[in-house]
Amino acid sequence: MSVKTLKIDGIDVAIEEGSTILDAAKEAGVHIPVLCHLEGISDVGACRLCLVEIKGINRLLPACVTEVSEGMEVTTQSSQLQEYRKMVIELLFSEGNHVCAVCVSNGNCQLQDVAIEVGMDHTRFPYNFPKREVDISHPQFGIDHNRCILCTRCVRVCDEIEGAHVWDVAGRGADAKVITGLNQPWGQVSACTSCGKCVDACPTGSIFRKGSTVEEMIHDHSKLDFIVTAREKKEWLR
Questions:
Q1: If you ran DSSP here, which 8-state letter would residue 235 be given?
Q2: C-alpha distances out from residue 97 to 132, 189, 191, Å
Q3: CA 27 to chain CA mean position, Å
Q4: Beta pairing partners, 167
Q5: DSSP assignments along 63-110, one per residue
Q6: pLDDT digit string (tens) for 80-127?
Q7: pTM, 2 dp
Q8: How far apart are alpha carbons 10 and 7 in whole angstroms?
Q9: What residues contact 30, with CB distance under 8 A and at least 6 apart?
Q10: Residue 201 pLDDT
Q11: Alpha-carbon span 49 to 151, nearest angstrom
């Protein structure tokens, strides 16, 4: 594979062709905030937090799905980008019912962490207060759609790592939501292996283990990293 050279925030980076700007930023030690990205699964550019500026292009592009090119000059931090990222987080809070004080992931939530990182202390948008259900039909897990940000991590980790294809997205716009088994209650989906990967992949408290109380649930993404790495290195076979 050929190597591409580029600049990220003025830092020279050389990286394999086909890599994304996000990969190159990590190589350069440059932090770009993400929510829908998770190591080991494919990227979809859903959250738009990783938008970056590229010299010569008059629109912002998501770093997680934009491939590097020779001589590319990327800016990851600017007043415009900071404002866009803050707006994205404000919209996520206003579109859902995120009440951190009573959430199982309070203090261990990536949405909460990014909100602090971008300096959000309120939202300029009116809250929608949508009516969203909670599904606790599964014997071990539950999903609270009020906390879901449609990052689709659960969908991708179930498809690409577990191979069970339990999760999907249904509806459009404000009516979109993640579903299990073609919109069956989670507990009735025979394809579910109860592996818990979707729980660990979720960046918020939307998918949780039953019995968890406020601030008690900790996501362990290292489990997913181990599985992906072990398969790539053929250290672990099913």
A1: S
A2: 9, 26, 29
A3: 20
A4: 180
A5: TTTPBP-TT-EEE---HHHHHHHHHHHHHHHHHTT--GGG-TTTTS-H
A6: 999 999 999 999 999 999 999 999 999 999 999 999 999 999 999 999
A7: 0.90
A8: 5
A9: 8, 9, 11, 76
A10: 93
A11: 11
